[in-house]
Amino acid sequence: MAGGNWTRVEEFILMSFSSLPTEIQLLLFLTFLIIYLVTLMGNTLIILVTLADPMLHSPMYFFLRNLSFMEIGFNLVIVPKMLGTLLAWDTTISFLGCATQMYFFFFFGGAECFLLATMAYDRYVAICSPLHYPVIMNQRTRAKLAVASWLPGFPVATVQTTWLFSFPFCGTNKVNHFFCDSPPVLRLVCADTALFEIYAIVGTILVVMTPCLLILCSYTRIAAAILKIPSAKGKHKAFSTCSSHLLVVSLFYVSLSLTYFRPKSNNSPESKKLLSLSYTVVTPMLNPIIYSLRNNEVKNAFGRTFRKALGLRNCIP
Helix 153-164 vs helix 95-128: angle between axes, to the nearest 10 degrees? Predict the structure, then answer.
């Protein structure tokens, strides 16, 4: 500001969906609460079943388990606070709380992009080199790939969050969103943010598009391999092994692109909130449903696990 007339902000107010009538906010609260519980339950079941069932100890389900961990973390960072804002009794968030929420949002978001690319590579090896698949995707390799998927989230989250919250804030402390995302918080800064905005755009493009290009390369090779399979049954079987992942990737990247890569003139705060719901709330719920309904191995494993649990329960005196 002109004379350095600014004071340190100690808390922010999340505007969330405060412009909507109270009745609509209550309806949203109930809807998001159900989605939140389904998300936690679905992803937890995926983790437990893939651990408990020996038939699901393959690399694909190892990476799926990692994805479920990420979806649970993503939800825990965003949804509980959003539910509080919808009831209008917990609309404030501390300075440190806002920074922490943004940090883990970037961390889980960045890690998920790279994990989806790793899962695409796993499908590429399984379909294009089926005989060498157990050797290539051994326990050591899959562990390295999982770590390599989680690691990029740390520098992305650390640099962007630390840099943004080192700026001075002045004037209003109202964040026009349901969580502490970078663009709405950046609008409250009273300093020159041009360099940060360039970094944020370049960083977002690299973190989002690099895994996306890797996924496209993997599926281009997969498509070429499937087309060479002579029988229709063989083609269907090969495609069915990657259809769930392809659908999850499509949902994630379409919603992410519509949120962050639309022209600013078409990107009103209210429309961005609605689009943000798709990848922060809806997609984490759909992922376990997609893998359960479209994957016979997972469906059968659920059945075996539940039958085993019921059998053990019946044996208890």
Answer: 160
